[in-house]
Design a protein that fits this description.
The chain has about 280 residues and is an alpha+beta fold. It has 2 domains: about 150 residues, Rossmann fold (3-Layer(aba) Sandwich), CATH 3.40.50; about 110 residues, Beta Barrel (Elongation Factor Tu (Ef-tu), domain 3). The protein contains 8 helices and 16 strands. Strands 8, 9, 10, 11, 12, 13, 14, 15 and 16 form a 9-stranded mixed sheet that branches. It is elongated and about 65 Å long.
């Protein structure tokens, strides 16, 4: 059965998440509400996109995902609905949905017209605009009843990895709760260029690695019983298919982000070699 999910930069201290959930169950007490994350850094659309993109497809088709990040209402910015990949996504028109679906064209996009005509009605956009739209869709309502087709949603883009001569150059895209460093170098892009070479070196700051494990499971399988590997750096392709730098058994305090000193936007290189 479809559900409504919530993602926000509201944190868990203030009233806002409770207000959203209260509004949902006031409109339909039978709806299942699930949280994706409320610990998004304030206004961080790239972080939002990474988290939602890697979470939403685990929910039932037809689910409605409210994304209340950088969502405070003002009359010059629309609230929109994306229908994409069998799900609905509701957010402010700030570009976050274009980041989530940089590789998938939405089936339709609507501007939400419900409750947005008069500024004094919209005190809290997440509860006053996004929630009623989500409940309407969950109840089987059509998006055109509460909105109109919209052809010019704001577009943003992630930086792409590139290739020159014998080297891929990418950058840090995201840092997760374990301090792992996720790059914008995909496994497919790596394999596309590696095919004509014999070996490679991953370079970042003053460090280098020459092996990529196929996921953290592969790393654990090889290193689990060897205590000397604890705290050692490694590279993997994570569940999103992206090159990730990690510290074995690391965490946010002593993980790759802390020990390597890499921040979002900094360069990571993969240099290819022939024997």
């Amino acid at each position: 059965m479809p559900v409504i999910t919530l993602t926000s930069d509201f944190g868990n201290t203030d009233h806002r998440i409770a207000a959203m959930k209260g509004r949902i169950i006031s409109l339909n007490p039978d709806i299942t509400i699930l949280d994706i994350s409320h610990e998004i850094q304030a206004y961080n659309l790239k972080q939002t996109a990474y988290i939602v993109k890697n979470a939403y497809h685990h929910f039932p088709k037809g689910s409605i995902h409210i994304i209340a990040v950088d969502s405070f209402y003002h009359k010059d910015r629309k609230c929109i609905i994306y229908k994409a990949d069998g799900h609905y996504f509701i957010a402010a028109d700030n570009g976050v949905l274009s980041l989530i679906f940089f590789d998938i064209k939405p089936e339709t996009v609507y501007e939400i017209t419900y409750n947005t005509r008069f500024d004094d009605i919209v005190r809290f956009a997440a509860a006053d605009v996004l929630v009623p739209a989500a409940v309407h869709l969950h109840n089987g309502g059509l998006p055109e009843v509460i909105g109109r087709k919209y052809t010019t949603p704001k577009q943003l883009s992630f930086p792409n990895a590139g290739f020159t001569d014998h080297m891929i150059f990418g950058e840090v895209l995201y840092i997760d709760n374990f301090g792992n460093i996720i790059s914008n170098i995909s496994k497919a892009y790596f394999e596309e260029h590696y095919v004509i070479f014999d070996r490679f070196t991953i370079k970042f700051r003053n460090l280098a690695l020459s092996k990529i494990y196929s996921g953290y499971t592969g790393l654990v399988t090889e290193w689990e019983n060897e205590t000397e590997f604890h705290g050692k750096p490694a590279a993997i392709f994570n569940e999103a298919g992206l090159l990730e730098l990690t510290i074995y058994k690391g965490n946010i305090k002593n993980g790759a982000h802390t020990l390597f000193g890499l921040n979002i936007g900094e360069r990571i290189y993969v240099e290819f070699h022939k024997d």
